[in-house]
Structure formats: C-alpha cells, structure tokens
Design goal:
alpha+beta, Immunoglobulin-like, seven-stranded mixed sheet, three-stranded antiparallel sheet, 16% helix, elongated
Length: 212
C-alpha cells in the first residue's frame, strides 16, 4: 500500500515537472500584448499620422488594371522595444472573417517595406554588440502594405452565395512576425481593421436628389 502511494507521488511529481518545463519553454520568446514587438496601428497616410479604424466600400470595385475586384492598401506602424537588439520584420500576416459566412476568405502574407528596426534604447544608453551600421537606425517604422488584396475581394465576389446579404462586414486581423539579431522570433499584438461591403448597385443620393 505504501509502495503504491509512493509510486503515485513520484508519478505526480514527474508530471508536474514536465508541465513546469513546458511552461518555461513556451515563455522563451514571450511577447504578451506586443510588449517587445508592437504593431501600433493602421494609418491612412504613408507617414502614419492619421489613424484608420475602418472603412466602407462597394463590393466589386474595379481596380486600376480593370480587374473586377479592388483592394485596400494602408500603412502600418511597427516598433521594436528590445533595448540592445535590432529586429527584422519578416512578414505581415492577415486573416479574414465575415461574421455569419458559411466559408471564410483565405489568409494572406504581405511584405513590409521598411523591414529593419533598430534597438529600442537610444544610441550609447545601453551597451550593445551590434555593429556600427545599426547606429542611428530608428526602432519604429511606417510602411504601406495591402491590408485586403484584390484577390481577397475577388474571392468575396465569386463566393457571394456563402456570404451574408450585403451589406456585410469583413474583419481583417493583422499581426507582424519578426526575428531579432539574437535569433529569437516574435509575433506582434493583433490589430483589427473592419471593412463594410455595400451593394454596388445602390447609389447614395447626393444633395438635391431623391432615391426612388
């Protein structure tokens, strides 16, 4: 009886030990709420001065090359808060959800033009092993990317039967992934950007006009 109790206690300790190790490993490159690697938001201008919280557009907007689906290009601002390490933005990852839809648009991966971010601490404030070429490199960068590519809008057009009736909302969930100069990989906090798609056949009356 005592032997069985001792074996059980040993087994419990072993399991608890495994759980503790797993917890320590999972916290190796923690970035809770974007503390280390932060996606600050979505902006309408290339200098990231004017924030964007959402938009509305007719489904079926013609793009510049005449395709039957446009797209939404906006700017993102990303910052690196690691004091003595630089960060390279690897990709912008975007998933899409239309509440109430039978199927969802596929996720996309976009490039970020200003991909290299300097250390979070000012030059000389913290000792760093980074080469001199990183001196003066800012830790925050703004760059334009395709939040909703034309291919996603074309998917919506071609799959109308699996979507709610217009108008409906598409929610883009945006994160960035990056790797530090020490080799650690990080994912930013998510930022959400909603787009309300309206019926292109409905024309909003201008001043002095009445709808039928």
């Amino acid at each position: 009886m005592l032997k069985q109790f001792g074996r059980r206690r040993t087994l419990v300790r072993f399991i608890l030990g495994l759980l503790l190790v797993a917890g320590m490993v999972s916290c190796g490159s923690s970035n809770d709420q974007g503390v280390v690697f932060t996606l600050l938001g979505v902006y309408t201008d290339a200098d990231c001065n004017t924030g964007a919280t959402g938009s509305s557009r007719p489904l079926g907007t013609v793009s510049g090359d005449g395709a039957f689906g446009g797209g939404v290009d906006l700017a993102l601002q990303i910052t690196n808060n690691l004091a003595a390490q630089a960060m390279r933005v690897e990709a912008i990852n975007i998933s899409y959800e239309v509440p109430g839809a039978a199927s969802q648009p596929p996720s996309t991966i976009q490039a970020f033009p200003a991909s290299l971010l300097g250390p979070g601490a000012p030059d000389g404030e913290i000792e760093s092993s980074l080469p001199d070429s990183f001196s003066g490199l800012g830790n925050t960068s703004c760059g334009e990317t395709s939040i909703i590519p034309a291919a996603v809008e074309q998917y919506l057009i071609l799959n109308k039967t699996s979507l709610p009736e217009l108008p409906f909302t598409l929610i883009a969930t945006i994160t960035a992934t990056g790797v530090s100069t020490s080799g650690e990989r990080y994912t930013t906090n998510p930022v959400y950007y909603p787009v309300v798609y309206t019926d292109p056949s409905l024309i909003t009356p201008t001043s002095g006009e009445e709808s039928e």
